[in-house]
């Protein structure tokens, strides 16, 4: 029996070494920092996150990365939430693989994490702004007197890289002033499509010589870029710059987020352009589908 002791010790040594190495890339010391940020799977995950959300994780110190993320110095609250939830998803995926699960889709995980972060931020924003006991309102609301609201939305198909923008402008009485739609090809991602829609909406508003404008969308990543002014370090920097330039043509501009239920008119506009009619503008008469969507957007009890 003693003859087997060296073999047992060697097997035990190899087992310990294997446990202390990343099972994906073989790097020694499988720390949380490695699993969350530097492993091959993590790099693939964060590349997908940048493509989908437009956010690139900053360079973080291996020993102080959690403090850097949560301190607020390197990233906003929404970006910190994305990193924390992403790290949790990567660690959970690592544990799942160790227990026999062989497939884990980084892009699907990013979509899940981004959706979860979006829900958390929207819920937090609503709770901080809504008086106690007041229910959530998802319908379109009239802007204050003297202001005009520009609602924008985008359609996007990842398989064909084709999309479209939609924009609807209404005044403080809820009267429809103008609307537009435009078809695009070779679009990189949904965020790019939403930025194109926002730019087109502001272009249309500028052409109407409007003074005070509220740009409203239902895409939280775009809303955060506009509100926090972080587009300068995103993948849509060029479009973000165009939006900033257009914003200077108004006396005042504010940014607003609305749930999809209150953005149906802009959504309908984004569905109207085609190969035969790639660009549409309405100033006097409007499509019946748009007028019907206008009615669905508005809840009389709210406006």
Name the features.
303 residues; alpha/beta; Nucleotidyltransferase, domain 5; six-stranded mixed sheet; 6 strands
Task: Provide a short characterization of the protein structure.
The chain is an alpha/beta fold. 48% of the residues lie in helices and 15% in strands. It is built from eleven helices and six strands.
Write the layout of secondary structure elements.
Elements: H1 5-19, H2 32-38, H3 40-53, H4 65-71, H5 77-98, H6 106-129, E1 148-157, E2 162-170, E3 176-184, H7 190-207, E4 212-217, H8 220-228, H9 237-247, E5 252-257, H10 264-270, E6 279-282, H11 288-297
Parallel strand pairs: 1-4, 4-5
Antiparallel strand pairs: 1-2, 2-3, 3-6
Helix pairs in contact: 2-3, 2-5, 3-6, 5-6, 7-9, 10-11
Describe it.
The chain has helices at 5-19, 32-38, 40-53, 65-71, 77-98, 106-129, 190-207, 220-228, 237-247, 264-270, 288-297; strands spanning 148-157, 162-170, 176-184, 212-217, 252-257, 279-282. The chain is 48% helix and 15% strand. The chain is of the alpha/beta class and 303 residues long. The chain folds into two domains: 2-129, no CATH class; 148-297, Nucleotidyltransferase, domain 5 (2-Layer Sandwich). The chain has a six-stranded mixed β-sheet with strand order 5-4-1-2-3-6. It is elongated, with a radius of gyration of 24 Å. Strand 1 (148-157) and strand 2 form a beta hairpin.
